[in-house]
Amino acid sequence: MKLSSVRLRLLLWNIGILLVALLGSQLLMHFIIRTSMQADMDRRLNNMSEGPMHFLSEADTDRPPPPPREPAKKGKKHRNHRPPEENRRMRMFRAFDLQGKNMMQRGTTTGTVETPWDTAAFARAATGLTVYSITRNSEDTLIRVLSRPVLRDGKRIGVLQVATSYEDMQALLKLLATMMFILIPCVLAVAGVGGLLLTDRALRPVRHIVQTAETLNPDDLSQRLPVVGTDEFAHLATTMNGMLSRIETAFHSLRQALERERRFTSDASHELRTPLTAIRANASLALTGKTTQSEYRESMQAINLAASMMQRLVEDLLLLARSDSGQLAPSYAEIDVQDLFAEAQALVSRDAPQATMVIGIDEDARTLRGDPHQLRRVLINLLENALRYTPAEGTITLSASRRHGQVILSVADTGEGIDAEHLPHLSERFYRLDASRARQHGGTGLGLAICKGIVEAHHGQLVIDSTPGQGTTVRVMLPADPA
User: Fold this and answer.
1) Which residues, in sequence order, are bridge partners of residue 409?
2) Using an 8 Å Cβ cutoff, are 439 and 388 in contact?
3) Which of 7, 171, 183, 228 sits in a 20 to 30 Å window from 125, CA-based?
4) Dihedral (CA of 211, 213, 218, 219) sign
5) What residues form DSSP beta bridges with 464?
6) Is 105 in contact with 114 (CB distance < 8 Å)?
7) Alpha-carbon span 92 to 70, nearest angstrom
8) Using alpha carbons only, what angle is made at residue 24 by residues 20 and 26, rounded to the nearest 5 degrees?
9) Alpha carbon of 419 to those of 264, 383, 426, 466: distances in Å?
10) Helix, strand, or coil here: 91?
11) Pair (234, 113) in one structural domain
């Protein structure tokens, strides 16, 4: 297992935290038990000192006091079965006057000279303090000592020291520490094995995600990661699946854009080739010098017409490029819809017999806000398309209405109509229903693409409805409040 592995790092972190928790709990437990046992021992020492203290404070010290003993447990009689010599050796209290002379030595036959167990505690108790301390006696046994000042008639006359063995308590604390230090490695070992199994199970979804992600390729982004359960890993897989869906959509859109760009370049080249060929042919004919004046004039007119076609195509391409780059920002102004319709109607081509044009404007749609030059361009393109496919006996209707917070400009004709299969492609660049017929009428296949770009720049929508044999209706739906 690599050191950089998440699995190993999780395991080490868990074991480290568990180790700190176990050591902390052991130290806390050791402190609580030690404090509790020591407090209980101090209470017993204090109880043991009450009898000698009462005797030393009020009685004659020429006779020794009875040895201190702990109160017998309830329901049991206290009996001292030790012989007198053992009682003497096990006596655990001593009393000294302020000069350090044994106050219990008189009238006894111990044969030994007793000294304070803890001289430092004796000195502090001689100043009037009650002192608990731990020291070792002459037999090198660890004992707990209580040093209390002895008062008689309100005056300090000596110090009483009461002691009890500290060995049992020390042994118990050592046993507890030993058990904990034995148990801690065992607990850590069990936690390590359990942690390996748990992290392996917990990280299994991640391995599945990695394995699936490794199989993904740009040619097939339809695969998705497995989603198991409802935990954080399932949420991660769901999020990544959403990201893959967005990437797949982006790749699909990119492919479509590249395909449109390729087709656009091919179509633009083809469109430019036709007028260029006409210009070159007519210019070559005119330069031969063998043409009559009327033939020369016709060649110049053909060159002029081809140049006009090229100029319009280039202008359309530049307008679409501005639309693609987001630079087609409208210059908003208040527009009179009646004037807008009249200007567009006056500027459309009138080379062929015209269908009848009808204008209808609702009272609440007489004005709108938008760019007058761009919207005029939209209406001219729509009218030219309508005139191109509507017979002379047909009717073209321009109307304006207001509905659901939108101003709707409509151009409806009674022409030949459009099949449903063509409707989704009408706003694509260089798309023609009949390429030869459209080119004959001077169309470039960019008109509706330009209209769509201008309308979308106004935050509007271009909608086309058509029924073959009955006619076509194009609606320009603009927001009534552009702000």
Assistant:
1) 400, 476
2) no
3) 171
4) positive
5) 474
6) yes
7) 12
8) 120
9) 23, 19, 11, 7
10) coil
11) no
**pLDDT given for residue 107 in this prediction:** 42
Nearest-angstrom CA–CA distance, 397 and 73: 117
In a domain, 188, yes or no: no
- Under a CB-based contact definition with an 8 Å cutoff, are residues 133 and 121 in contact? yes
Q: Give the chain's domain count.
A: 3
- Which positions ≥6 away from 382 have C-beta within 8 Å? 411, 447, 451, 474, 476
Beta-bridge mates of residue 367: 336
Torsion sign (Cα): 429, 435, 436, 438: negative
pLDDT, position 410: 93
**Among candidate residues 131, 262, 155, 184, the one with its CA nearest the CA of residue 15:** 184
Integer Cα distance of 406 and 51 in angstroms? 107
Domain-ending residue, one of 266, 301, 327: 327
Instruction: Find tokens 């086309």 and name the residue.
Output: 464
CB 374 within 8 A of CB 327: no
CATH number, domain with residue 266: 1.10.287.130
pLDDT of residue 88: 39
135 shares its domain with 239: no
Residue 360 has a CB neighbour count (10 Å cut-off) of: 12
Do 322 and 360 sit in the same domain of this protein? Answer: no
Q: Six-digit token pair at 171? A: 């042994």
What pLDDT, on the 0 to 100 scale, is given for residue 118?
86
77 vs 291: CA distance, rounded Å: 153
Strand order in the sheet with 93-97: 93-97, 155-165, 142-152, 131-136
Phi/psi for 432 (5° steps) reads -130, 145
Q: Residue 468: which domain range? A: 332-479
Q: Which among 362, 353, 359 has a CA at the least distance from the CA of 387?
A: 353
Q: In the numeric block, which tokens belong to residue 141?
A: 């046994």
Helix (H) or strand (E) holding 359, with range, is: strand 356-361
Domain termination residue (choose one: 308, 327, 346): 327
pLDDT along the chain (483 residues), means of 10: 64 83 85 87 86 74 50 45 41 79 58 76 87 85 88 84 86 86 84 78 74 74 74 80 84 80 72 80 82 83 83 76 73 91 83 78 91 90 87 90 91 88 76 54 70 89 90 91 74
